[in-house]
Specification:
The chain contains 15 helices and 4 strands. By secondary structure, it is mostly helical. The chain folds into 2 domains: about 1-40 and about 175-370, no CATH class; about 50-150, abc type-2 transporter like fold (3-Layer(aba) Sandwich), CATH 3.40.1710. A 4-stranded mixed beta sheet has the order 2-1-3-4, with helices on both faces. β1, α4 (about 60-65) and β2 (about 80) form a beta-alpha-beta unit.
Length: about 375
Amino acid sequence: MHIANIANLGVKELRSLLRDPLMMVLISFAFTVAVYTAATAMPETLNRTPIDIVDEDQSALSARIASAFYPPYFISPVLTTLQDMDRRMDAGLTTFSLDIPPNFQRDVLAGRSPDIQLNVDATRMSQAFTGGGYVQAIVAGEVAAFVQRYRGNAAAPVDLTLRARFNPTLSKGWFGAINEVINNVTMLSIILTGAALIREREHGTIEHLLVMPVTPFEIMAGKIWAMGLVVLCATAFALIAVVQGLLAVPVHGSVALFLTGAALHLFAMTSMGIFLATMTRSMPQFALLVILVILPLEMLSGGATPRESMPQLVQTIMLAAPTTHYVTLAQAILFRGAGLDVVWPQFVAIAAIGTALFGLALLRFRQAISEMG
């Protein structure tokens, strides 16, 4: 009887979700367009960066420097004047403005150290942070090659051989696509279950459930398996059709093992979604609370930056969050091809945390129902 009630309540949740077009659009967007955008829009350090050059020298060396900036790192330089240089940067038309002074080639050949002015639009942080170093290296290389009459590098005393594992092309798109899938699993699992509970409260259907021969456990379990199944199916579609198919990102590990870990993570996060929903009275309150919860979970779990670079106190506290263990197992399986013998500690940790969250959410759910009665 309990299993039949849970199954019927879950089917009711699925039907209710199908009648909510905004939620369906959110799910579709999160696991298709958002994943594709995260992979293709992530800058590769510098990518088609606009640069202006003011050539006051009009020499062979200045022309050589101007021709050294080309795609994909830079857009072909725009040769401008001193009068237009500041105007173009103020208008946001360029990120870098390089001013080559008069008599630059003559001073270089005479052994002097002339200065070149580089103006940087620092509001474009992703490009300005590393772009200055790129410009300096390009200019220094062209000047050295011009003075030496040939292009060459001094032999280093030690030869460092680099071998990139798991991502030999160092493509950030691989990381961006899979990391977006991981983050969206966390976000959608909380939002869907919490919204389902608040929607019933706002529509008054929760009172109908209370007069039926069902228990709070059955109501909660029905919401968890239904919303978890939706997110799990969307995750499998995103991983197979979008990540592996459309974006051609190789997945080194077992997709089935990853989806098993995702199912455990969904159990924990849907329980958290119900707990958060019982703490609020309306959908706007729930949305604000979700923002406060999701941002730390995603930023401090190791998905955006390695946990080892965080303070030790933060690392210790985040061990209580299921997202920390989920990100670890997901990256180990999908990036490095790890098996169950490697990630079983994360599976155990997520199961334990999920059980604790389920019990806490059930206790809070029963209290909320008793207050309504």
